[in-house]
Amino acid sequence: MRLVLFLASLAAALGLAVFASQTPAPLPASTPAVGFSAERAMADVRRIARAPHPVGSAEHQQVQAYLVQRLTDLGLQPSLQSGALSPAAVARIEKDGGDAGALRAVNVVGVLPGRDAGLPAVVLMAHYDSVPNSPGAADDASGVAAILEAVRAIRARGGADRTLIVLLTDAEELNLDGARAFFSEHPLRDRIGTVINLEARGGGGRAMMFETGLGNAETIARYAQATRKAIGGPSSNALAIFIYRLMPNGTDFTVAAGRELAGINLAFIGRPAQYHSPSSTPDALDQGSLQHIGSQALETADAFLRAPTLPQATQNAVYADVFGLSVVRHPPAVGWVLLIVAGLATAFAAWGAHHATGLRAMSVVRGATDGLWLLASAVVVGQAVRVLAGPVGGRIDSADTYYTLLRRLPMLEVGVALAMLALVLVAAGGRERIGRKAIVGVVAAAAVLATALGGFSLLVVGAAVVAVGLSLWPSDEDRTTWGGWLGLIVLVLMLGGLVQVAAPEAAFLFLWPGLIAALAAAIAAVIGARLTSWRALIPTAVATVAVGGWLLVQGHGVFLGVGTDLPGALGLIAVLVVLTARPLAPTSAGEARVIGGLASASLLLGCAVALAARFIS
Fold this sequence. Notes:
Elements: H1 2-20, H2 38-48, H3 58-73, E1 79-84, H4 87-95, E2 104-112, E3 121-127, H5 137-156, E4 164-169, H6 172-175, H7 177-185, E5 192-200, E6 208-212, H8 217-226, H9 238-246, H10 252-258, E7 262-268, H11 287-305, E8 318-322, E9 326-330, H12 334-357, H13 361-388, H14 399-429, H15 431-434, H16 436-454, H17 458-472, H18 481-502, H19 508-528, H20 534-562, H21 570-581, H22 589-616
Helix pairs in contact: 1-20, 2-5, 2-11, 5-11, 7-10, 12-18, 12-19, 13-14, 13-16, 13-17, 13-18, 13-21, 13-22, 14-21, 14-22, 16-17, 18-19, 18-21, 19-20, 20-21
């Protein structure tokens, strides 16, 4: 039955995504000296994060002294650099009831000289201060400890030509003041060639490389090559970098990037409940995350230290890792080649489908409107599920509310994902078979709920109008499997073309799945253009599992980053999943009713999970 193949392919894609999203196993202290061991690094995490250590506290002074001693023990030449606190930092201290007085940001700087002092140096950077109410095991004791363990491993591998600078900054949590002091005042600032920063916004998950300097093609090439040796492999894509640059967030790397330095910024953002929380203790930290971020930092830093040249700014790369195994990358202009190849494959598939089934152009148009309906509905339904979990936008009136929402984020992700699954089932199973009036009622109710609890949003209201209008568009005989499939492919390739013009480094999210779907369609047209044999559906099933699994991994990262603000972003992932799964969808009325029942159950369960988050967290 097609229904079984359809559901099995979606389930396998989810299983692949869950497996690929796991952190690597932490390596024991018995790991060879040249490797990174999370167990060895945890000794430093436990000491640094035994208690909160904000700027000005007695514990902060003790952590500082501990780090000076650790750098000395590692054979570095440590020193302290003092810098003034910014007015914003002083205001934050006073707001928390403290006295800024004579407080200053004090960086701990260690130097491991290279054989050639004239070569630009490599910086490993993390901040050692915490917020007042958190031990900061993740943010950022994990980064500091990972650097100390990486330095030990680098020394075990033998001397390098380049100098290594360990920069443990202070007052990052206040206003990045330690980094500002170093990159504007320290004598070493002009010797730096590249920077590797380690951060965290949570207590677990795979560590992602989410920021680079501008013109990052050479940096990405070096990162991709170096992290082949990293435990857990690479984890990064150009979309994450593109989105992060649009956000108001900042880390110490922001200061380095402002000086046009090359480099990478690493962080893990899973287990968001631990962000700036008393629960961010060494015992709560995911040691697999520590292993992953430390191993990537070690291999990348070691490669830079031993390289004859460091990355220079050229153009931004288009790239993404594939299940942490390797990084696929290409110049932005190659996107046009992929678009042309996908267009030719789509045209060939349409030609084969027309000769085998009499496919008409209007059927393809209706397939494209199915994708538009899914995108619009995702914005509305996603926001409705989101508001069930708590306030949004301007209604988030305090830091406590923000951190509460972060604690609810994992349950909210499950709720929104279930809602997206419901829309995927409806779009693939056929809206006319499930019932247009029922669909209009659900979208309208979701829009009312989102507006009542979240406030007026032109985006949500506009999306609701589009979704309702497309739901009421009269149905006729032009709806076919081929039309639905090719219409989605055409829509995705058109979106990919628009993004290729506006932001080519982000277009891969559309062009890569679009190309694979187009090639699968062309192969299916050759094997069995009527799409009635199992052989003709095998390419699509394989593409659904592989591409769907990869897309779900990307969706997980996107939601952790922007889910509280824009949950409907998962609608893009939903459309791209349907892109490959559409030919597998059931065609009989009986199976369509089953799909409709599953969609209803999935949507109700998603709402229940999001609502439960409000009471559980």
